[in-house]
Amino acid sequence: MKQIIEDLYPMNACLLGEGYDNRLEYIKKLIDLKIYNFPSGTEVGTWTVPDEWIVRDAWVKFKGKKIIDYKKNPMSLIVGSLPFSGTVTRDELAEHLHYSDEMPDAHPFEFKFYEKDWGVTMPKNKVLKGGEVILKEGEYEVFIDTEYKPGVMKVATHTIQGKTDKEILLFAHLDHPFQANDNLSAVACLIDLVKKVKPKQYDHTIKLVFCPETIGSIAYAMSEDISKVDFVIALDIVGNESKEGILLQKSFHTNERINNVAHLALRGMGSGYRQAVFRSGIGSDEYVFNDPSIDIPGILFTTHPYKEYHTSEDTPDKINYEMIEKVQYAVLKTIEYYEKDFTPVRKFKGPLHRSKYGIQTKGKQLNLSWDYFIYAMEHGKTFSSLCVDFGLNYEHTLEQLQRLIDDGQVSVSPITGERTLKKTTRKKH
Amino acid sequence: MKQIIEDLYPMNACLLGEGYDNRLEYIKKLIDLKIYNFPSGTEVGTWTVPDEWIVRDAWVKFKGKKIIDYKKNPMSLIVGSLPFSGTVTRDELAEHLHYSDEMPDAHPFEFKFYEKDWGVTMPKNKVLKGGEVILKEGEYEVFIDTEYKPGVMKVATHTIQGKTDKEILLFAHLDHPFQANDNLSAVACLIDLVKKVKPKQYDHTIKLVFCPETIGSIAYAMSEDISKVDFVIALDIVGNESKEGILLQKSFHTNERINNVAHLALRGMGSGYRQAVFRSGIGSDEYVFNDPSIDIPGILFTTHPYKEYHTSEDTPDKINYEMIEKVQYAVLKTIEYYEKDFTPVRKFKGPLHRSKYGIQTKGKQLNLSWDYFIYAMEHGKTFSSLCVDFGLNYEHTLEQLQRLIDDGQVSVSPITGERTLKKTTRKKH
Amino acid sequence: MKQIIEDLYPMNACLLGEGYDNRLEYIKKLIDLKIYNFPSGTEVGTWTVPDEWIVRDAWVKFKGKKIIDYKKNPMSLIVGSLPFSGTVTRDELAEHLHYSDEMPDAHPFEFKFYEKDWGVTMPKNKVLKGGEVILKEGEYEVFIDTEYKPGVMKVATHTIQGKTDKEILLFAHLDHPFQANDNLSAVACLIDLVKKVKPKQYDHTIKLVFCPETIGSIAYAMSEDISKVDFVIALDIVGNESKEGILLQKSFHTNERINNVAHLALRGMGSGYRQAVFRSGIGSDEYVFNDPSIDIPGILFTTHPYKEYHTSEDTPDKINYEMIEKVQYAVLKTIEYYEKDFTPVRKFKGPLHRSKYGIQTKGKQLNLSWDYFIYAMEHGKTFSSLCVDFGLNYEHTLEQLQRLIDDGQVSVSPITGERTLKKTTRKKH
């Protein structure tokens, strides 16, 4: 994965255009890709695919000396900057000058694709010192040679065939120039995942989707057949060491089964993890699918926040590859638990003789949890939701429950027609 | 409004009788009134219209000297006192003597219309000093020449014609002798409101109702046609400066639309305001209509509490007329928002491209609120309830939403048959 | 009750066997009993009736001297200990040696009927001193002459005939050797209750059930006709002085009417009491019936916790008989309130004229509670649940409501078919 991130990092990948296309070409050499084209001007919902943004040169001179130079540092120019040429005062320049308060020695990653303006960036420490402006007064010569022209936005998918045509979509956005963790960490994670999954290993056909964030997933959702998609997992920023552990950001509808199995997958890994509600922290392509007008549950795995976020300091050398592997493991466990899940049906009457099935523990709490687990079976709940509700481990509890299943005390009922069913019933409330 | 309050204040207006009738006569010179008569003995629900209470004289003498004299101060006698004549000890007098702990220099406003007793009032400071009784021991001569005799209780309405025959009732109780804020403030507020509303300005026909508190609104509700009333607003005590601002006391059923629009009206006024659940503070005529057996949503606007409440210190000179005007404005905005309200229907798929419609903000919270506003449209919620749920301003948000409506992305569905519908469905739960 | 507890205490009553049978024989002399027999090996749900456990002798010798001697102190041996004979080291002995941390001078009551092991007990103070082991190193001679052999487990019932064949079951488990409060307190409470109830005093036929805890009630529930049982009350540990008062542990389904009436019964007694959710503290035979596969609501009355719990210090001399009588009173009031309960139906419109019916109070809270009580009648709630919801006393409120009933303002609707109805509707959620 290290090689992938280091190779993709220098390619100046905006929503569409040369840098983005170069990244796709690179990935295509590693795994099969199917490319979907969306020319500039294509309408997708309330959005319109923008023109391609081209930079030929950009600099700012003070007293004849380049103090900002795109060719030396492409992060000196905000992404999507309009062209501009002229002489401005220091105060006029200041209105178009961006810096990061949190990382005063870095260039910020700024993005103005939809709200048009020109702009350049500098480290804060070159602009202000102790609250005082140190950027000298006087005239600044600004030259920004950029252009917007029609292009083609590309979304790419790689398909891992499953036993059925039910689908799972895994998203990693491919844009954001010169940002390693955001989001080449996820891109590398998914490319590497291909090696670890055998065809027909899972019931679901898994599609990896590489696209420009938000508008790419909107375009995919609006134009492709998504009727067979059971759920979406977006990976966004998954390569920083996070003391609190991986964050699972849940789907819009809180009672989705995907939330339960993802939660159980993280909990079963033994290290710390975090949970948050839909869009409470960051949001990536999963939020597009959760929109009630599309109504496919989507979750996000991330290791956000990290201090280099959206600055020139988000570089490949800071990537924590162990964390990327943990996220990859969590994704695969989530899929496995989702597919193994079932509805246990109680066949016995009266309290369970726990000690007969090796479930009795000396402490009272676990016995109570098990009894409540059994009581709640009356309601047709899935195994995963029972494990979540009563704080039980997925794999260990399944092993114990298996003894009851083998003894005919509990039977197994498959979960079928889940998405179709929901589509119908949801409209009613 | 000042003149109105000062003129009405000295009229000794009980539930029924001369003082009350004088107040009605006065108002009739300012605005048209329709009078409804309820003779003593009329049964309205579990209530019976009481007899008229007449006072000819009342005094208490100690050693031949009048220490309490109704003719000098009519608040020396409790409202509704039975007649009494005789000599009593200090301790016997004490059982019939009322004072205010909170306002020790004032006479309390006491009311015994339904639980029969005789009683007089004094400032607490003339009875007790530092916890010690200073009222001298000895014999007190008591003379209370009152009488109960059949009379006629009157409820008066003024009608402001609307475009339709759907009704809104605005209540201000007209009884409570020698109390300016409670409730001549509201009486003046409604009389003045007539000047500010043009016929057919609103869809609803607005009826102002002046009546004795509680029993007057019960009588109206039991005997008049209220099937066209959409909601009731009671104004009770609206003329003291309240640091916390106007209090909106909501209807019994918490999910009524009137609660939402009144809340939005207050919030839109830019000053502080308070909200409380049904009957949590004071309660006035709105509580009669909220009773599930009548089931018309009613709210209360008030500036209560104030320290002169129910004492001889509640006088016209302490009225804050700016506050009365604010309440009047809140009433009209509430009606306006109620009538302008509608159900927005989402017509677009996928996330909204907020920047295209000028809704995008730099801060994240407002963007999220807007997105949730859109998600929630799926549930057929009204515009007003969406504004309340997501903390958005009624007028500003309507202006923004209008751009989406103009672009065909959202359509407008009227709210129809609300009350009739509720009547039917409510009975089921 | 004192005599009963003192007589039953020395009988070594395990789940089944001679000591248990002796206790039954004793009770049979006081009240009629019907005995149900369950031979060892009988399967009841996932449970199997165990063999009878017989002890002939048991001791531990150190240097030829008996340091543990069953014949001197039968609590020296854990209940259900397997036979064992041999010489063990101090550390080997320690693995089978039980003591109580909370009561270091007492022998613990230990119970290993289902998880087979041998074991003896000692006061902790003879094993450890200040964290140091004072039990000497060396060889210990162990002799445990016990045997498991087929026997007959017995459940006994006493029936108090009611006006109908609807049933209430009152449980007191009869096992636990040498434990007075746990549970001879409840056994005595029920035996004594027989004297206080006349035949056909209640609508319900009341059955007192004496049985081995858990497995006894499971056996009864699985083999007898329980279709007419409306609810179950288990009494477990009801004879210690509890500063916090009697604890009502509620049924699994929180909205059962039995919870409300039991709550009102305790509240009406004027002393402190406690409430807890199902199985939050201890659990006894009521939990068997609450199991959703059986689905009969059951509550527990207890005075637990107490410090002598499950030690040799739980002796007859510590029993608080006043508390047992309070629990007995609570049981009878619970039954009375349950049977007297009804659904009040509102017949009047508009607010109630409270003072007309002597319900008006000076304080505001009680008036509000009464009004809400009336509002909530719209929902077909029972009288008991209305009292609970609005904090009103059962008997006093019934007296007040009776005036409204007598005046035709409220009518009385019986609660019928409750259990049958629930059985049907519950399956749906």
Spatial sequence of strands, sheet with the most strands of chain A: 1-12-14-13-15-18-16-17
Task: Please report which band the strand proportion of chain A falls in: under 5%, 5-15%, 15-25%, 25-35%, 35-45% or over 45%.
Answer: 15-25%
Give the N-to-C terminal Cα separation of chain A.
46 Å
Low-confidence stretches of chain A: 420-429
Helix content of chain A: 25-40%
What would you call the structural class of chain A? alpha/beta
How confident overall, as mean pLDDT of chain A? 93
Q: Pair with the most extensive interface?
A: A-B, 20 and 17 residues
Number of helices of chain A: 12
Q: Please provide the count of β strands of chain A.
A: 20
Work out the radius of gyration of chain A. Answer: 25 Å
Largest sheet of chain A: 8 strands, mixed
Shape of chain A: elongated
Question: Which oligomeric state applies?
Answer: homotrimer
Description:
- 3 copies of one chain form a homotrimer.
- Chain A is an alpha/beta fold and 429 residues long.
- Chain A contains 12 helices and 20 strands.
- In chain A, the strands form 6 sheets. An 8-stranded mixed beta sheet of chain A has the order 1-12-14-13-15-18-16-17, with helices on both faces. A 4-stranded antiparallel beta sheet of chain A has the order 5-4-11-6. A two-stranded antiparallel sheet of chain A has the order 2-3.
- The two termini of chain A are 46 Å apart.
- The C terminus of chain A is likely disordered.
- Chains in contact: A-B, A-C, B-C.
- Chains A and B meet through strand 3 and helix 5 of A and helix 9 of B.
